[in-house]
Amino acid sequence: MSDTTVHGSRGAQAPLDASALHGASEVRDWIALLKPRVLSLVVYSGLIGLLIAPGSLHPVLAVSAILCITLAAGAAGAINMWYDRDIDAVMKRTRARPIPAGRIEAGAALGYGVVLAVGSVGLMGLATNWLAAAVLAGSILFYVVIYTMWLKRRTPQNIVIGGAAGAFPPLIGWVAVTGSVDVLPLVLFAIVFMWTPPHFWALSLWAHEDYKRAGVPMLPVVSGARETRRQVVIYTVLLVPLTLVPWLIGFSGPVYGLVAALLGANFLRHAWAVWTDAQDAAGVSLTGDRPAKACFRFSITYLFALLGALALDRLLLA
Ligand code: HEM
Ligand SMILES: CC(C)=CCC/C(C)=C/CC/C(C)=C/COP(=O)(O)OP(=O)(O)O
User: Fold this and answer.
1) What is the ipTM of this complex?
2) Ligand 2 centroid to 166 CA: how many Å?
3) 35: Cβ below 6 Å to ligand 2?
4) What is the pTM of this model?
């Protein structure tokens, strides 16, 4: 092989590599519009709903149902990013997102979200049943219209009411299998509903400057850090007994009950640490919000473990 050929092939490869890299980062941006990290737990909770439901779905249809939940929640995230592009541009945490950073055009992101939303609902109806498709459509509308467009910029209760959108996936997984609603998936809905405020308000304790700058009335911005700490404790106290309900009403065995109690005790410990964190008179942390950061991280592990324990108990030990 001559030198020229070697150089020639390198010369031909360089622009190819550059365009491949560009292509890869473009793909990453389109994936980022789906909020993939948050999706992990949303989809997992949908999968748990599907696994613990009585009856079964053909594996191809079960995979399709999970794909639909993934695409629908991702679509809702993309439409949320389209609508929130003005505030996302102001907040440090979100300003590098594809739309505010100018890497994806706002209209294209909206089109992408709408196509995925309609496609995922249609596919869910065809693959499973139309009640599951209707609940899926309702959850997209809830997140986009009720949370993002209506409550997020108006009231600190945005998380409590609007957060219900994130509580739908276990119910959707269940309905995809059974075609009907039952008590257990409603209890799971209530659990995720009650989990959302401590999950988010723990984070908001150290992220409130961002929200203040963007004019979003999150609880610490409107009512201060002390009240936010109090609400984290209140919702965790309400959450823990609720997680015991599947065991108390006979939908699971004592293994789940024990795991739920242990996890709950740990969550309460974290919430209490948030409340008793060293703070100034306004409730602002003097420790760099170490307990709030630990509480937020634990909230995620907590929900993964709690739902996993329920599924293991029902599938393996029942
Ligand atoms: C209105 C309700 C909620 C709000 C405002 C909220 C907000 C947030 C924020 C701001 C983050 C920080 C990092 C990021 O931007 O990715 C986060 C992380 C996270 N949230 Fe939520 N969340 C809500 C509900 C939920 C629900 C229902 C789930 C799943 C069931 C969930 C799962 C997660 C997960 C897994 C992370 C960690 C992502 C990572 O590793 O970076 N969230 N949430
Ligand atoms: C099946 C289906 C459609 C489920 C919906 C699941 C879902 C996307 C839940 C909401 C979770 C979430 C990331 C809220 C934060 O929104 P935000 O706008 O306050 O967060 P941001 O500031 O990071 O954009």
Assistant:
1) 0.96
2) 7
3) yes
4) 0.93
